[in-house]
Prior knowledge:
The protein is mainly alpha-helical and 155 residues long. 52% of the residues lie in helices and 4% in strands. The radius of gyration is 24 Å and the shape is elongated.
Amino acid sequence: MNATEPLLTIGEVAARAGIRASQIRYYEQVDVLPAPRRVSGQRRYDEEVLKRLSIIDVAQRAGFSLDEIRTLTGSENRAPEAPARVRAVVDERLPQIDALIERATAVRRWLVAAQDCDCTSIDVCSLFVDPQLAPPPDRLARRRGLRTDDPLRFA
Length: 155
């Protein structure tokens, strides 16, 4: 930080970032934002906090949890192994996102088909037996009290 650069109050940071001050305090509490310096007991921030808040916003919109964001933005985020940490979080998240996309595609396909449905009752409608929209077999088995460790049961 430049010595001539003015420090910002929490209200100024909140206004410039477009969030509530309580959100900034929460980010500090869960260690996503570093604790700010204090002047006469009041929080004071340098301009760098706005960049950090922008990173948090983008990461949240990308679907990252605050725990994952903490891993990405922690105090060691400038260490040589930081890029490897980012890749590890992304490698863990990508399969989850792929599964969400696959499920959303199946739901969309079902909704498009449902637009043309002219069944007289849902009891006779084939749309309600779409195997891609059914819960995974182990979830069904748990509901019915069946064992899920029997590989033949769900083959």
